[in-house]
Design goal:
- This protein folds into 3 domains: 3-78, Arc Repressor Mutant, subunit A (Orthogonal Bundle); 84-161 and 268-303, Periplasmic binding protein-like II (D-Maltodextrin-Binding Protein, domain 2, 3-Layer(aba) Sandwich), CATH 3.40.190.10; 163-266, D-Maltodextrin-Binding Protein, domain 2, CATH 3.40.190.
- The strands form 3 sheets. Strands 3, 4, 5, 6, 9, 10, 11 and 12 form an 8-stranded mixed sheet that branches.
- The protein has helices at residues 3-15, 18-25, 29-43, 59-83, 99-116, 129-138, 184-188, 201-211, 225-233, 247-251, 281-299; strands spanning 48-51, 54-57, 91-98, 120-127, 143-147, 155-170, 192-195, 219-222, 239-242, 255-259, 266-274, 306-308.
- Helix 5 (99-116) links the parallel strand 3 (91-98) and strand 4 (120-127).
- 44% of the residues lie in helices and 24% in strands.
- The chain is an alpha/beta fold.
Length: 312
């Protein structure tokens, strides 16, 4: 198996066509077809099939595609690590961020990296927490923002902030809290619109509710943060979440966040990297910038509901 075969295979999947992939790769289509056949023979599996939508990966091809991306990224990182200097880091850095944290951190981080390190190609990916964990483990991501649920032992982790979860509604909602704070029992009386279990925040909420001897009666599960916001604005219910995903709506006065007074409901936001794959100089530069930026956002009050952790 050769690296060029991996590149060829990935190009076919990405472009959905042998002819388009051949043009992008600057090779003739028969040579591309031959390399694909050799790869499939070596693996003993059919990786692609032709459909009305073009060339598509088989189930085996989908699995191999993920591994091929990870291998090609690690090769690229290795080349960058040898070539780059510590004074002027360059190369590609892929960082993953959960949907529920991107509102506070994604855009400031994008601006900060572009300003501080113009030679770094910064790839910022927003995903469900479970997807980020898998991509970081496979090497497709250099870094990821994750929530410490006690299952991060396989990663090199640096705590960033502790982020409080609050009871959030539309400002004039029928479910809005009547005072400056609300108890957990009162919050659970409302119809709750919560992220699905794949989100890092949901297991934490369920854990605290169980510890208090209670359970969630009325819940609407929504995977997408954007759809969850729309449901809140339509007054279909309330939510229990960190403020960061709703920050813009709260600042515009469209939503209201109310502290939960009788329980400690928060999550630990953590920066993670693989223990097995070394960080390039560029990735280490971005890692340092993430630590500095989260400290600034928290202490300035721009990242509401957070407190810096001493471990930084």
């Amino acid at each position: 198996m050769e690296l060029r075969q991996l590149r060829y295979f990935v190009a076919i999947v990405d472009h959905g066509s042998l002819s388009r992939a051949a043009r992008v790769l600057h090779i003739v289509q028969p040579a591309l077809t031959q390399q694909l056949q050799q790869l499939e023979e070596e693996l003993g599996a059919t990786l692609l099939h032709r459909s009305a939508q073009g060339m598509q990966a088989t189930d085996a091809g989908k699995i191999f595609y993920e591994h091929a991306l990870a291998i090609l990224k690690q090769v690229s990182d290795a080349r960058s690590a040898v070539a780059q200097s510590t004074d002027k880091p360059s190369g590609t850095v892929a960082l993953g961020i959960p949907q529920s944290a991107s509102g506070a951190l994604a855009f400031p981080l994008l601006k900060a990296v572009r300003a501080a390190y113009p030679d770094i190609v910064f790839q910022l990916t927003e995903e469900l927490t479970g997807n980020l964990t898998e991509q970081l483990r496979s090497g497709r991501l250099n870094l990821a923002i994750l929530f410490d649920d006690g299952q991060l032992g396989g990663f090199a982790s640096k705590p960033l902030v502790e982020e409080e979860m609050m009871y959030i509604t539309r400002t004039d909602s029928q479910f809005a809290c009547k005072r400056k704070s609300i108890t957990l029992a009162q919050a659970l009386q409302a119809t709750l619109i919560l992220p699905s279990i794949q989100h890092g925040v949901r297991p934490r909420i369920e854990q605290v509710v169980r510890e208090q001897g209670k359970h969630i009666e009325n819940v609407i599960d929504i995977t997408s943060i954007a759809i969850l916001k729309s449901a809140l604005l339509a007054d279909m219910g309330a939510t229990i979440l960190p403020v960061s995903p709703m920050l813009a709506e709260i600042e515009r006065g469209e939503m209201r966040a109310c502290p939960i007074s009788d329980v400690q409901l928060s999550r630990t936001v953590t920066l993670c990297a693989s223990k097995n794959i070394p960080l390039t100089n560029a990735a280490m530069a971005v890692e340092k910038l993430v630590l500095e930026l989260t400290r600034d956002l928290s202490t300035s009050g721009k990242w509401l509901g957070t407190s810096i952790l001493v471990a930084q």
